[in-house]
Design goal:
alpha/beta; 330 residues; six-stranded parallel beta sheet; 17 strands
Length: 330
């Protein structure tokens, strides 16, 4: 049996929950959970915002733990090895996307907390490919958010060919943004933080920003940026950010604004600019992200709660007080 915390209904409190996972599949691993981050996607699933939740629902998809059991066909892992598990727990492995290494774009990919139970538990299961070994130099207590937030902001640097000489802007200095600033600085870029909160300038610079621009100063940076990464869920003046791009620049979304993204076509056409977005990343890119994070000592800033205090931790995140990621420990 697996002991977990589950919600019985949308926005309901999490309560102790026990379930039988059934036989372990031949290519699956069972991970003994040590730490699990809490992501805003967990809140969205708990509240059924995406109309994709089923109850009882066990959240948790920023998981760090050790391999406690393996199916007979598991490869590249060993018992007792420390691994991480993020948003996805399996993919088909035979579609054109999987064969090209884009497993995160597989139409048959299964999310860790959609149709299966996640990491707010003592154990969790996944296909072995998605259980990515954790470098020994990374602090296991802090590494969980790298498997969702970290991979989400790092993946564009690989996928879009961002160069060390590029001038990069990061919108938002929150759970995603504070990691994006660190990755962009370590990548070698000239990094600017965009925020509506002037008081965050010192923190933004501590995370790697060379420059800080408040929302009201956008007009001063017309035509300057090769790449702007939006990590926020707020509705902003996207036309102003397009104006801030240099010719052939790109405005890329990993945060999800509440409203449709609206802008005029002429700024895109005249400057040959682009709008785009991306979801998380493949297991291969997760491994590259972890190696890069270990090389440059990149980790999220976290606040720790015991798993038994999960409802308190969720309230802390909902209230907007988290700085900058919340992690549960057994």
């Amino acid at each position: 049996m697996i002991n977990a915390y589950a919600a019985e209904k949308p926005r309901g409190p999490l309560k102790p929950f026990e379930y039988n996972p059934g036989p372990l599949g031949p290519e699956d691993v069972e991970i003994n959970v040590e730490y699990c981050g809490i992501c805003h996607s967990d809140l969205s699933m708990l509240d059924n915002e995406w109309q994709a939740s089923s109850y009882p629902l066990v959240p948790g998809h920023e998981i760090i733990g050790v391999v406690g059991a393996m199916g007979q066909s598991v490869k590249n892992l060993r018992m007792g090895q420390r691994v991480g598990l993020g948003w996805f727990s399996s993919s088909c492995l035979h579609c054109s996307q999987c064969l090209a290494g884009d497993h995160n774009l597989c139409a048959g990919a299964q999310a860790t907390i959609m149709g299966r139970h996640g990491g707010f538990a003592d154990k969790v299961r996944a296909h072995w490919l998605w259980a990515v070994p954790l470098p020994k130099t990374l602090d296991a207590a802090k590494a969980g958010p790298l498997f969702c937030g970290g991979l989400t902001v790092f993946n564009p640097f690989l996928q879009l060919g961002i160069r060390p000489l590029d001038r990069v802007g990061i919108i938002g200095i929150g759970g995603l943004g504070h990691l994006a600033l660190q990755f962009a600085r370590a990548w070698g870029c000239e990094v600017t933080a965009f925020s509506s909160t002037q008081s965050k300038e010192a923190e933004a610079r501590s995370f790697g920003a060379h420059h800080f621009i408040s929302s009201g100063e956008l007009g001063k940076v017309s035509g300057q940026f090769d790449f702007i990464l939006s990590t926020v869920s707020a509705d902003l003046d996207w036309s102003a950010y397009l104006t801030a791009l240099a010719p052939k620049g790109r405005l890329h979304f990993v945060g999800v604004p509440a409203s449709p993204i609206s802008t005029h076509a002429f700024p895109l056409i005249g400057g040959q600019k682009s709008l785009s977005g991306s979801p998380l990343g493949s297991p291969g890119n997760a491994s590259k992200m972890l190696d890069f994070a270990a090389r440059h000592s990149i980790l999220p800033t976290v606040e720790m709660f015991k798993l038994a205090a999960v409802n308190e931790a969720l309230d802390h995140l909902r209230s907007g007080q988290a700085r900058y990621r919340v992690v549960l420990e057994q």
